[in-house]
Amino acid sequence: MRTLVAIAAAAAAAVMTAAPSYAAGWEIRGLLNSTSTADCISRAYRILNNYSRVYSVGELQRGSIGVYAYQTDHMERDVTIQCTAVDTGGQALLIVHDTRNDTDIAATAERIVQYWDANAGK
């Protein structure tokens, strides 16, 4: 039985290493100056809504712990502003993910940080 389990585990590992990776490019930044989770979510929604007026956002969703923007910049690039740590004294997190290994994700992240810092979502 142990031999069968070892063979199955080896086969699964071989299949997993042969499969393509969809993790590609990530950019994570801290966002300061939120007073509460609710404030952070409201601000994040305003920021990403303003961002969508200049740059493209396919879909914008507000959740209970953050705000999500899908297909930003006319690409398969997703943006999340997660606000879960704000109530405990932490900072919000900006997460930009692209399924391709794209160096432009840093530019997207920087633009959103500038929106966050410059106009506080107004």
Question: Features of this protein?
Answer:
3 helices; alpha+beta
Structure description:
With 122 residues, this protein is α+β, with helices and mostly antiparallel strands. It is built from 3 helices and 5 strands; from the N terminus they run αβαββββα. The chain has helices spanning 2-18, 37-54, 105-119; strands at 25-31, 59-62, 66-72, 77-82, 92-98. Strands 1-5-4-3-2 form a 5-stranded antiparallel sheet, covered by helices on one side. A hairpin with a 4-residue loop joins β3 (66-72) and β4 (77-82). α2 crosses α3. The protein is globular and about 35 Å long. Mean pLDDT is 79; it is low at 1-22.
Radius of gyration: 19 Å
For the biggest β-sheet, the strand order reads 1-5-4-3-2
What is the overall silhouette?
globular
H/E series = HEHEEEEH
Instruction: Output mean pLDDT.
Output: 79
Outline the biggest β-sheet. Answer: 5 strands, antiparallel
Helix content estimate: 40-55%
The number of distinct β-strands equals 5
Structural class: alpha+beta
Beta-strand percentage range: 25-35%
Can you tell me the residue ranges where pLDDT is under 50 for at least 5 consecutive residues?
A: 1-22
Straight-line N-to-C gap: 64 Å
- Count of helical stretches: 3
